[in-house]
Specification:
- This protein is α/β, with parallel strands linked by helices.
- The protein is 27% helix and 25% strand.
- Strands 5-4-1-6-10-7-11 form a 7-stranded mixed beta sheet, with helices on both faces. The protein has a two-stranded antiparallel ribbon with strand order 2-3.
- A hairpin with a 5-residue loop joins strand 8 and strand 9.
- The chain starts with 5 loop residues before the first strand and ends in a 5-residue tail after the last helix.
- 42% of the residues are buried.
Length: 234
């Protein structure tokens, strides 16, 4: 593990309405707590965590009422319309409270409440001082089909070597900021921005429970995982 300080970022400015209801999905209750509360507590439980910056929508009045918001390590900033804009804003907010370019940043989706702290620790240990960083991910298990415009199979894609990207993703603050500044807001994850700069992040296998809460049917599955493991993933 690197000796440099470790910080967390949670991108939580999205509406996430595909999960149903008019409430953003990060505030849906799963296993007795909001999705965002689970995700925030996971980052705070990582050994050596200096602080966590939550990038939330300007009109968000819920984030500061989270139980963990009373932790002095929890900070807030305004996010953007796209994930990349939110993370970019959070990195600048971290710098404003003392984080340096050589510090490490774990960027996590608000909607991945079942991430195992032990998986995050393995990511931190695996990356060490590697400047290209790394991310939690899972090898693709199923046969992949590409659809045409009519919803029919256009081709079967080879799955060898393919991984499903997850979060957290871990990078040096300065390099990640520069990568996001050089990319447009259409990049869907931090690793993608780093790859455009020539980086080759390390893939670290994560538990299958680390799914992103996207659709209503995800809630009972996540709840079963979290109740059975006490909130420590699977």
């Amino acid at each position: 593990m690197s000796a440099s300080p470790l910080w967390g970022v949670i991108a939580a400015a999205g509406a996430g309405l595909r999960a149903g209801d008019e409430i953003p999905k990060q505030y849906h209750v799963v296993a007795g707590r909001s999705v965002l509360a689970w995700s925030l507590d996971a980052l705070l439980a990582v050994p050596g965590m200096s602080g966590v910056m939550l990038a939330v929508a300007a009109e968000d009045t819920r984030a500061t009422t989270l139980p963990a918001a009373e932790d002095s390590r929890v900070h807030f900033c305004s996010g953007g319309a796209e994930r990349a804009a939110s993370v970019r804003s959070a990195l600048r907010a971290l710098a404003a409270i003392g984080a340096g370019d050589e510090d490490w940043v774990l960027v996590h989706d608000a909607a991945r409440p079942a991430v195992a702290v032990s998986d995050i620790e393995r990511l931190v240990d695996a990356v060490g001082d590697e400047p290209d960083g790394g991310l939690l991910a899972c090898p693709v298990r199923d046969t992949l089909k590409r659809a045409d415009a009519n919803g029919a199979v256009a081709e079967t894609a080879a799955r060898e070597g393919l991984w499903q990207a997850m979060t957290p993703q871990l990078f040096p603050l300065g390099r990640l900021r520069d990568a996001l500044d050089a990319a447009d807001d259409r990049v869907t994850d931090e690793a993608g921005a780093m790859e455009r700069m020539g980086a080759r992040p390390i893939l670290v296998a994560a538990s299958l429970s680390n799914i992103k809460y996207t659709y209503p049917e995800d809630a009972p599955l996540l709840a079963r995982w979290m109740i059975s493991t006490g909130g420590e993933g699977a």
